[in-house]
Write a structure and sequence with these properties.
The complex is a heterodimer of chains A (228) and B (217). By secondary structure, chain A is of the alpha+beta class. Chain A is 32% helix and 26% strand. In chain A, the strands form two sheets. A six-stranded antiparallel β-sheet of chain A has the order 1-8-7-10-11-4, covered by helices on one side. The radius of gyration of chain A is 20 Å and the shape is flat. Chain B has two domains: 1-139, Rna Polymerase Sigma Factor, Chain: A; 147-217, Orthogonal Bundle (Arc Repressor Mutant, subunit A). Chain B has 217 residues and is mainly α. Chain B has helices spanning 12-27, 38-46, 50-72, 75-91, 103-122, 146-163, 167-177, 183-190, 194-216. The chains are: A alpha+beta (228), B mainly alpha (217). At the A-B interface, α2, α4, α5, β6 and β8 of A face α3, α4, α5, α6 and α7 of B.
């Protein structure tokens, strides 16, 4: 059996989320370079997305709506800023230490490569380069164009985040992290994401690979980091 | 670089314009959330509008709860999973991108992921569906709105397509998707080689896709 045939056997299990984590990661690596598997996965995913529509309808209790809206209304009143700030919860590590450790990992991978690429003379915009984990996203580069009313993260040479996954952008303030955006990359590995608001009090902008739709807190060390 | 093709979200200015427009309608009492499309509602949700979010819940909460119930097998666990998923949707609302697909698929995807995560975390595989809560189970009310009638028809169509699959293929697909089991666990349960299980998943999904496409044609 060829290597491709061996991987191709996993397409259905992957689409259903039935591959154990390690096998899924190995398959995702193959997927990045295999158009045949990408096409098949795209086709099978049409069937997977239909599955929730097959279930018998059940009425949720009115109390569920009431308790949900109680929390939502309370949060809407308290917080004009949409994203909830969450502590980064890497196992066994306190947040600040976790991100410091993440920074060390990146630094080991590429050296202390943070540098300000340019700052427009007199203008508010400036561009910062990223530290990139060249083990997990080999050949990738990224920069952050910073301005007062919003910034744009641009990446190049990034591998696809993997089936069912996206890249998620996080901003760090005093050891707290909060989600800022999600993005995909195209077949050339290019992608971009808007990071809303001022970055005046932001220490760093980071990116992790997360399940599609994004998550509340990072589940892995960042694949890239930009100290602001 | 093709920013749009690379998944760049809708430009802020455009979103803000729509939100301001919505805000004006709200001020004059002219906004009728029920008449807004899901994608328009999500723009208001992204700006932090709880009433728009409530409308989204009203539209999709039933499907979400039904999916969670199908996975966890008890009403109380389904309620927890649905609430958890919708709070996650509310708190991560800035991440919705309309070019990623329909709001309904996005919501059901999150509900599925969070419910399977909860299932695996709590390791309730062995005990669920065996509880006494089935007695309290009640299906949705008989009176159907047009939307509910459409959903019933959609359910019937997907189920009919599933029924054309060989039973062995249905079993592995359901154990994986609704049960949250890995292919290894399923192979062990069914006393089948892992390769057989993976093959059934692949063939079953492909057949299901073709059946659904045929039913739509």
């Amino acid at each position: 059996m060829s290597a491709h045939a061996e991987y191709a056997e996993n397409v259905g299990a992957y689409a259903l989320g039935a591959l154990p984590e390690l096998e899924a990661q190995v398959f995702e690596r193959h997927l990045m370079a295999c158009e045949e598997c990408q096409d098949e996965l795209h086709r099978l995913n049409e069937a997977v997305e239909a599955l929730p529509r097959s279930v018998a309808p059940h009425e949720p209790p009115p109390s569920l709506r009431a308790s949900l809206m109680e929390v939502v209304n309370a949060e809407a009143e308290q917080k004009p800023v949409p994203a909830r700030r969450r502590r980064f919860a890497l196992p066994q590590l306190r947040p600040a230490i976790a991100w410091a450790a993440a920074a060390c990992v990146l630094a080991l991978a590429v050296g202390f490569g943070v540098s300000e690429l340019g700052q427009d003379d007199g203008s508010e915009a400036r561009t910062l380069s990223a530290q990139v984990d060249d083990q997990r996203v080999p050949g990738a580069s990224a920069s952050l164009s910073v301005s007062d009313d919003g910034s744009v993260l641009s990446v190049n040479g990034m591998p696809a985040a993997g089936r069912g996954r996206v890249y998620e952008v996080w901003v760090e303030r005093d050891g707290d992290v909060e989600p800022a955006a999600i993005f995909d990359v195209n077949d050339r590995g290019s992608g971009a994401a808007a990071v809303p608001g001022s970055l005046d009090d932001v220490d760093a902008v980071m990116v992790t690979r997360e399940q599609r739709g994004g998550v509340d807190q990072p589940t892995e060390m960042p694949v890239l980091r930009i100290d602001v | 670089m093709g920013i749009a093709s690379a998944g760049y979200s809708r430009p802020r200015a455009s979103r803000i314009t729509v939100i301001r427009k919505l805000a004006r309608f709200v001020e004059t009492g002219a906004v009728n959330y029920a008449r807004l499309a899901d994608e328009e509602l999500m723009q208001a949700v992204q700006a932090g509008d709880p009433m728009a979010f409530e409308t989204i819940y009203d539209r999709h909460g039933g499907a979400a709860f039904s999916l969670a119930y199908r996975i966890v097998g008890t009403r109380s666990a389904a309620e927890d999973a649905t609430q958890d998923a919708f709070l996650s949707i509310w708190r991560s609302r800035v991440r919705y991108q309309r070019d990623r697909g329909s709001v309904r698929s996005w919501i059901l995807g999150i509900v599925h992921n969070r419910t399977i995560d909860a299932l695996r975390r709590n390791q309730v595989h062995a005990t669920r569906r065996a509880g006494a809560e089935g007695i309290e189970e009640r299906e949705a009310a008989a009176e159907l709105t047009d939307v509910e009638a459409f959903r019933r028809e959609e359910q019937r169509r997907v189920r009919a397509a599933i029924e054309t699959l060989p039973e062995a293929q249905v079993k592995v697909i359901e154990l994986a998707y609704f049960g949250g089991f890995t292919h290894n666990q399923i192979a062990e349960m069914l006393h089948e080689p892992v390769g057989t299980v993976k093959g059934r998943m692949r063939l079953g999904l492909d057949k299901l896709r073709r059946e659904l496409a045929g039913a739509m044609a």
